[in-house]
Amino acid sequence: MNFKSFTRTEILGFIFLLLVYTLGIYFSNTDLEYFNTSYAQEDGFAEYGTAFILGCICLFLLNKLFKLWSYKPILWKIGVIGMALIFLFGAGEEISWGQRIFNIESSEYFKQNNAQQETNLHNMVVGETKINKLIFSQVLTVVLVIYLLILPVLYRKIESIKKLVETFGVPIPQWKHTIAFLLATGLIMFMPSERKWELYELAFAVLFFLIFLNPFNSLVYKEK
Asked: pTM for this structure?
C-alpha cells in the first residue's frame, strides 16, 4: 500500500476514526457509565455524525448526477439515484427522521410495533423478530463483507463484473479502505458495551464517504 496515495481527506478521516476509537476503548473500559450515557449515547455525536455523513454522501451523489447527466447513460443514472436514496434512507433512519429533533410523537402503529416506539423501520418488530437484528445487522453485514472484501477482487479479475460495476456507477474500495474496515471491526471488540455499535456505524459512514470521494475506479464519477 502506497502511503503517498492517501489524500488529505483520507488522512483526516483515518485520524478522526483512530481518535474516536481510542477514546471509545478507553472510556468503555474505565468508565462504562460515561461511555453509555455520554460518549456513545442515544442522540449523541456518533449518531448525529453518522446521519450527517450519510447525508453528505447522498448530496455528493446527487451533485455528480446533475454534473454528469449529459455524459452518462441511463443505467449509470439509475445506479447513482439508487445509491443516493439508500444513503438518504440510512441518514433518516439513524435519527428517526428527525422525530426527536422536532419532538414529534409516534403514531399508535409505531408505538405498538417499534421496539423503541420511534418512527423508523430498523427498530420494528414483526412477531418475535427484530428487523434491526435480521436485516440491519445480519443481512447488512453480509452485504458489507461482499462489497468491501469480495467485490474489489472480482472487479480486478473478472471483466464482466467490472463492466457491470461501471455501468451502474458503483465505486470500488481501495485496499486501504478495506484494511480500515477490518481494523474497525477488530478494534470494536475491545469495547465492552452494546452502545459500541454507534461508533461502528460512524466508522462505516466515514469509510463510505472516503470510498466515494476516492474510489479505485476513479473514472466512475468523471466525464468520459
From this structure: 0.89
